[in-house]
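Quick one - inputs below.
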Amino acid sequence: MKDIAQRAGVSESAVSFALNGRPGVSEVTRDRVRRVAEQLGWRPSTAARQLSGEGAATVGFVLARPADTLGVDSFFLQLVSGIQEVLAERHLGLLFQVVEDVTDECAVYRRWWAEHRVDGVLVVDPRTDDPRPGLLDELGLPAVVIGGAPDERHPGLSTVWADDAGAMASVVDELYRLGHRRIVHIAGLPGLAHTERRVRTLRAEAERRGLTEVESVTTDYSDAEGAAVTRRVLGRPAPPTALIYDNDVMAVAGMTTAAELGFSVPADVSVVAWEDSALCRMVRPWLSALSRDSVEFGRTAARELTALLDGGPARTVRVPVPQVIVRESTGAARRA
Amino acid sequence: MKDIAQRAGVSESAVSFALNGRPGVSEVTRDRVRRVAEQLGWRPSTAARQLSGEGAATVGFVLARPADTLGVDSFFLQLVSGIQEVLAERHLGLLFQVVEDVTDECAVYRRWWAEHRVDGVLVVDPRTDDPRPGLLDELGLPAVVIGGAPDERHPGLSTVWADDAGAMASVVDELYRLGHRRIVHIAGLPGLAHTERRVRTLRAEAERRGLTEVESVTTDYSDAEGAAVTRRVLGRPAPPTALIYDNDVMAVAGMTTAAELGFSVPADVSVVAWEDSALCRMVRPWLSALSRDSVEFGRTAARELTALLDGGPARTVRVPVPQVIVRESTGAARRA
DNA sequence: TAGTTGGGGTCAATCCATTGACTTCCCCGG
DNA sequence: CCGGGGAAGTCAATGGATTGACCCCAACTA
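Output:
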């Protein structure tokens, strides 16, 4: 800036005013300064900006997953790419970190906060009894919880969520209509808020319809557990006629396992994947799946965060209910 | 820091010395200062640090992919998680950005450089005729090229690469041994350096053995193109007896397509995937695949970058040659 | 003509940590 | 008893952008 000031024959303040579009300089000067800046390829140093009160121009994103669980998961990359789209417009950077568990994640937030490294964060995989919203609220770090249920206890945080309950209800509805009465839900990680929501809803729906042979089994989302649970439940004397998997990976693994056990899909057992991705169309029969727009999900979350950074109020936004895409893996239940 | 200085009854300089382990303060004072700092939960502001000459304590990572191509790809998340592991030890942040193409990527580097946002970057998906190494060299931004071939033109950059040529040779070797003479390689994006290396090696190996019905077809890595190409080549009068796919996604899509066309795997056609992941064991028959440790790949790259940041010399490091994991999708060629 | 006003700028402080130059004070040797 | 030297600290400048306080002058008003 000193350079620019010199070459344009004005003070540094004038340069600052000119470049930030604030009054205090004539249009002529402004133009001159702009041209010099352009010519010099000048960009404000984020560090200096930050020191003088502006934010860090960065938002944080932590993924708490044991390294080996990060496998074939289309959801996160899509989410992140949606987030980026919005952040890029405002020239906000995304500081990304992978950690082992939520405790480490909290430590990261604390550090980022103390170091003033980020202006806000995006939180994923909310849990029942999650320490993160409390921490972020306490630190006063703007945050958007992605996939959480609305939470009154932390009015400082925004929430963006999909209506898992509604989606689960519609899946059960569909399966019930097809005549399925024995349904097993191969769920994801037990502590996660959306797992709990799905499990609860399934139970409620079953009760409402008087179904007794409906249950959820939690897993770690891995293909291995998906296959193992499938093998176990299909080995029962009265095996389920429909399986709902909480992600695409387990659904594929499960369907393969079913085939190995001599079950034909969908004649003997119907399969639904909770998450639509290329995977679902890479196997035969094509997997029926719950589809949502993860990229748009990311965009929405990022938009909420920027709104928060602009001083807007915390909000709770619901994205469209995931839709059941019926393909080939679901069909009428075989008569008992 | 002012706070700490006050409470510990010393000057700010003393605090700085104490906390950074430099001489100039007594052990007693140092301890006192440390305790006060700890108690206050103090962490140096990265911005201020950066202004006084230290780096940004951040490295950049840009992924140039059209949003819709980011699909089911285990490689990047694994790579990133390996990178993180090493960076986290040194408390270095990872600034992550997704862009559309290499041109945008270069713009991002320029911006980061001008804003002093990153101390170095990790470059992935090097291409033939890649503008990035030149740019980074010119900017003097420390960089590690991941997956590039050694490149003498830019002595400032480190390179971490896997020996694709060696791996391709071993795959061809294996297939040849099994009696395959008509081989099609469903390759990745044409401009990528490793695609070119694989294609070239395949041609060389074919020539060496006098095979005339061997070829590579480039694609965009998507399941759709993988399936389409498979359909096309298997529809020929003399279809190939072995298919090599440049990623797991296309391999699965291709194998499914082959099955639909009435080809039995591996009896009629053998399939090899270049990238081992859970996917390969989620389909039947299990996919034979080239396996490499992507997490370790990431760790190595990050280590090279930190070495570079410490002022070390640029180096070229080769990670172990990917190994062929023979599963069920490869077998002896059917007699002509 | 004296006084007011506002557009166009400048000055200097501020944010926070680091660091080279300098000051104190104590201990030891001569 | 004095001077040299080293340990322990302090002072103030530095880096880059922002910003509240102030200044100057031309034009307009009473």
